[in-house]
Amino acid sequence: MTALPSSDDIARMDAADPLAALRERFLLTKGEVYLDGNSLGAASIDALAALQVAARDEWSRDLIRSWNSAGWFDLPVELGDRIGRLIGAAAGQVVVTDTTSINIYKALHAAIGLRPGRDVIVAEAGSFPTDLYMAEGVISALPGMSLRLEGRDASRIEDLLDERVAVVLVNHVNYRSGELRDMAALTRKIHASGALVVWDLCHSAGALPVELDASNADFAVGCSYKYLNGGPGAPAFLYAASRHLGQVAQPLSGWWGHARPFAFETGYAGDPGIRRFQCGTQPVLSLRALKGALDIWDQVDMQALRAKSLSLTDLFIELVEGQCAGLGLTLQTPRESAQRGSQVAFAHENAYAVMQALIARGVIGDFRAPDILRFGFAPLYLSHADVAHAADVLRDVLQTEEWREARFAVRAAVT
Amino acid sequence: MTALPSSDDIARMDAADPLAALRERFLLTKGEVYLDGNSLGAASIDALAALQVAARDEWSRDLIRSWNSAGWFDLPVELGDRIGRLIGAAAGQVVVTDTTSINIYKALHAAIGLRPGRDVIVAEAGSFPTDLYMAEGVISALPGMSLRLEGRDASRIEDLLDERVAVVLVNHVNYRSGELRDMAALTRKIHASGALVVWDLCHSAGALPVELDASNADFAVGCSYKYLNGGPGAPAFLYAASRHLGQVAQPLSGWWGHARPFAFETGYAGDPGIRRFQCGTQPVLSLRALKGALDIWDQVDMQALRAKSLSLTDLFIELVEGQCAGLGLTLQTPRESAQRGSQVAFAHENAYAVMQALIARGVIGDFRAPDILRFGFAPLYLSHADVAHAADVLRDVLQTEEWREARFAVRAAVT
Q1: Which SUPFAM superfamilies does this chain map to (chains A, B) (predicted)?
Q2: Which residues pair with A122 in a beta bridge?
């Protein structure tokens, strides 16, 4: 067994980090290590400054005029293009609007409409649940459609593809385990069966390079409040490949998706471009915070981001496994870095209480039922020293068994 | 012809206004009269303060913990109950979430599900267009459904009701003319035919007393960024009568509508209450601004609000008609105050240019195609003196014909 990295080794890693300076743009609490950026990203100075301008100048002073003068009306497509750069999508294919759940509904309907005669949606049993719930919703309104789930009877998505499958809804990075799918390879297999694919990028957008266009993806959805740091509940995004635009329909056909929204026509005529996936008026204050949050990404090289992400997660796995042997942890995340997103999960029998004890010590991760300790590593604002500190605290919490204290056992309403 | 009110008369009206003090809570620009609060309500000190706390303390400092500690997760139902008080809805029947368009989709599906065997949606040709577009979207996904429109061939809603009608979608106040429907009477007629009703309250919530429960309404939707002053694009609300809860389904079945969202179950099980109409994660910053904006409503008596609203719109109609005779204006709003919301519309052949000229002089209303000058009167922050000033400026713009200047002819992308 080789020695674990020393504090000098870790200091050298941080000194060599090309993204280290970006940390100063974030508002982090001293003494805390925030490993929950895969649930809610940290606030940046830029996001808060943008929000203040939006509230004080655009809303309070300019009022209704800001729809034009401050560009509010075009924020969904402007921000869509900026996120597009981070997920490998050329301009005009991404819109920021509504929620991930609602965008899944739109994308599934759009895909099904492009595959008439096919009546099956394939999804993952281990998916983030809302994907499954929305697929159920789509099915409920389309007689004859049904859902096949990967993971039942050890099936893989590849095993479920046949001429009945219209669309496959698949997570790029699994929300629990952090396992990363090969987007290009799976998209090829899905296309070979004649189906279309909807990629859920909630746990990969801003966490690693994504190549939607190069992978020939059809549709994608994702959220902007995790690694993109857009603020709590910031609007989600939807990608539709340009080859599908102009042919697609989706039933949430509100006025913001109309080709001429301010002509106030009686009949719906969908915009020929990506705006067709818009529906109603968007929460501008939340969009403006997101716009500020995206500024920092102009300085980020996605390959450097990926290198740092893997360096952080490799280090965490190495330190935790090296320091916590025999303390009840089981790694749930692929050890092979190419198959890993930017998070690390360990199972522990008392995961809920352990996480509460960690949080009490300032190491903020989260718990996922029934037994997962989940740690997200946002490369923009975390250092290797943070990782080492978190691993030390995890060891201490497990060795002292302080998680057994009664105060850590009571579950909050939302976890 | 009686004399028009003098400036002394108008000063007396303001001195007697029980809501006059509330104006100080709003951030208004000196020298402007803002008559577009029926499109985007003005910002209040309370809304901006709430937004700052949300950004600085809840997001930046407390991060993920704020879902519990700041009550973020319950904001949709907390704010729903607070809006409920303003629209005559007892607790547990209103949720603030998503957009009006999306909530129309949910409510129509829910109503149709409660009326099996019926296959017609009735709506108004003169409806705000997104209502019609969403009804089209519902129909597109439900084979056999069709849409009947009031206003074609001089039909009234009453004429269109029969045993095929599942649901009627109707605006409480017309977005162009400001005409107010009798909610209780029309709901009775719709129920007598066996159909359900979805009321669109976009132009009545916060503008006048609404009595959903007392009218026996089934569903309602509305927005929070007009008279409720929640901020640009603030999330919308949905009302479902308690007698329908537990029996309703809607296809936007995301995880926020699940009975146990954090159990991460594979199958959807809808919440038995109003939360079932939630779908995905909501834009918290926008919700927090709305929460601040609602504080002022605790001090507002809705009957006093209605009295002031009618006093303002009566005065505007009287002054404009008295001062602008022969200048090309035609009143589009009911002269009978009981049939009027809180806005006044005049048609003018060159309405677009006239409105631009008014805006250049600091009287901010809006234009609605093809020929409508629309003026909204938010009773919380407007005075009778504002109304008199606006009427004077309208007279001046029309008499001088300054609207003919070239700079007023070019239409902005969004108006």
Answers
A1: PLP-dependent transferases
A2: A148, A168
